[in-house]
Design brief:
Elements lengths: L1 E3 L8 E3 L31 E4 L11 E3 L23 E4 H15 L3 E7 L4 H17 L4 H8 L17 E8 L2 H17 L6 H18 L1 E2 L23 H9 L4 H19 L3 E2 L6 E3 L3 H7 L13 H17 L8 H12 L18 H9 L1
Parallel strand pairs: 4-6
Antiparallel strand pairs: 1-2, 3-5, 6-7, 7-8, 7-10, 9-10
Length: about 375
């Protein structure tokens, strides 16, 4: 069986073999608003880092985007969202499940790209109030606006699954053979210098390059939905709902070729994650839950195994590591100084030769030339 990434000229046809059967409709969801009343018996497992500088090697092919930290790919400005993380943390069981799925996906040239996982309470509070303020600006009263916001995001507290650390927003993307070669070369370089404390800057720059290559050069599967955007069709139907194209097909009796691609891609992503043990969250395309309240309702479990969790000292140290690197080189800035331009150039070449350093030094740190000479020379 094949899936097609999109209906545009840059589309890719991916042979998925017998990976999953996308001819089967998504099964009806058992998740509804009543999951909030389920009890929690906390299992106590830790938050681990995936994506950049992962805690385990098997998490290396779970890529991530700092969706709220104001970096590249983020709709927010730097420091706009209080407590937003550069790191991507999730419960260990969730990371293990994604790692197993990513290992299978690599066989067909695909990777998992997580746009959101664990959120500190401050981030959840900001996002919820942003939705509320948007509805108020549209003429709603605060009470009505808060109820309307709850359709799309949970209020901070025991019923906000992203604060549990096992809810993940993600997509699947295809990488060309050329991109895989770039990643292999970076991984080879990382293996050579890994553990050398004197090369901390080089290690972090390479880790950042890996994420940027996937963010800028991958081909995400088109699901008809952009992350963190509330959209409705001309008839008022919620396109964010995971079942949108399933229901559109039922209403019309048919789908256009473009919509059929989006339907198949949604099914593919959902079946891959369900196979890994996650529950599909019906109200939001690309959101999957594990061992939390929505998962418990979906599976018929009497209780959730995860509740709200706080970052450990190890998590805080990991985040500080990335922030210290950013403070030194401004890597995560949305409008970066010359360092990011150089990183992009190296990421796109990926041959680890000493890059050309432009003559203009207005926005380039004084140590950049020496840094790259040491790293890639």
């Amino acid at each position: 069986m094949h899936i097609v990434s999109s209906d545009n000229l840059d589309s890719v046809c991916i042979d998925i073999g017998n990976f999953v059967d996308c001819n089967i409709p998504l099964p009806p969801s058992k998740i509804d608003g009543n999951w909030t009343s389920l009890p929690i018996k906390e299992k106590g497992s830790r938050l681990v880092a995936v994506g950049m500088c992962p805690d385990k090697d098997k998490y290396r092919y779970i890529f991530s985007i700092a969706s709220y930290a104001g970096g590249q790919g983020s709709p927010y400005e730097r420091d706009e969202v209080p407590g937003a993380l550069f790191s991507c943390f999730m419960r260990e069981e969730a990371a293990d499940g994604l790692a197993g799925a990513s290992e299978d996906l690599r066989k067909i040239g695909c990777v998992i790209v997580a746009s959101d996982a664990y959120r500190p309470l401050s981030v959840q509070d900001f996002l919820f109030n942003q939705y509320v303020d948007g509805f108020i600006a549209g003429g709603y009263s605060r009470e009505v606006a808060e109820n309307a916001a709850l359709v799309h995001i949970r209020a901070p507290g025991d019923n906000a699954p992203h604060t549990y650390g096992s809810t993940v927003d993600l997509t699947i993307a295809w990488l060309s053979p050329e991109v895989w070669k770039k990643l292999d070369k970076i991984d080879q370089k990382l293996q050579e210098i890994n553990g050398d404390l004197s090369k901390e800057d080089e290690i972090l720059a390479l880790e950042f390059c890996r994420q940027e290559i996937v963010r800028t050069e991958s081909v995400p599967l088109d699901t008809g939905h952009k992350y963190d955007r509330v959209t409705h069709d001309e008839h008022g139907h919620d396109m964010v709902n995971a079942y949108y194209y399933e229901r559109k097909r039922e209403r019309q009796g048919w789908l256009s070729p473009a919509d059929t691609i989006k339907l198949i891609n949604r099914r593919f992503i959902a079946f891959v994650l369900m196979k890994a043990g996650f529950a599909l969250y019906p109200d939001e395309q690309g959101q999957f839950n594990l061992f939390d309240k929505p998962w418990a309702q979906a599976t018929g479990a009497a209780q959730a195994l995860f509740g709200p969790v706080k970052m450990s000292d190890a998590n805080i140290k990991h985040e500080k590591r990335l922030r210290d690197f950013d403070k030194k080189f401004h890597i995560f800035d949305k409008q970066p100084p010359g360092m990011k331009k150089l990183l992009w150039r190296i990421a796109k070449r990926a041959d680890f030769q000493k890059p050309h350093v432009p003559d203009t030094r207005d926005d380039i740190n004084s140590g950049v030339s020496a840094f790259f000479s040491c790293m890639f020379g």
